[in-house]
Design brief:
Elements (H helix, E strand, L loop, with lengths): L1 H8 L29 H18 L4 E3 L2 H13 L6 E3 H9 L12 H4 L11
Length: about 120
């Protein structure tokens, strides 16, 4: 996954979390937790992940999982991090120039107009 992310955003723009890989922290939103109705507990479980994300200083948090995306987005709002969370597939589509206008609505202003690949000029 790191290879894909670095290929899409550029290695110079990649910021890894600490700890990472198999030692990384869970966001607290998986396994049905998003739908179980215990929102306060979910936020408490996710507090460590929110602190970990903030410590990176990164402009965006990339999530490959829908549950992680939703949980991390809510953690960002709840704990005041206000960092945007973006799906990995969104970045892949953006890098290929195939992300539709309606799929750009939740992106930050710095990414809304990005079009890396222009099919009309690739002949």
């Amino acid at each position: 996954m790191r290879f894909i992310v670095k290929s899409v955003v550029g290695e110079e723009n990649f910021v890894d979390m600490t700890p990472n890989r198999s030692n990384n922290y869970c966001c607290g939103g998986g396994g049905g937790t998003l739908q179980n109705g215990y929102k306060d507990q979910r936020f408490e479980y996710g507090r460590l992940k929110d602190e970990q994300i903030k410590a990176t200083g990164a402009d965006y948090c990339i999530a490959a999982c829908h549950n992680c995306h939703q949980q991390i987005h809510e953690l960002s709002e709840h704990y005041g991090g206000n960092y945007p969370v973006v799906h990995l597939w969104t970045l892949i589509c953006l890098s290929l120039g195939i992300l539709g206008p309606n799929e750009r609505e939740y992106l930050g202003d710095d990414l809304k107009e990005v079009n890396v690949f222009h099919p009309e000029t690739a002949m």
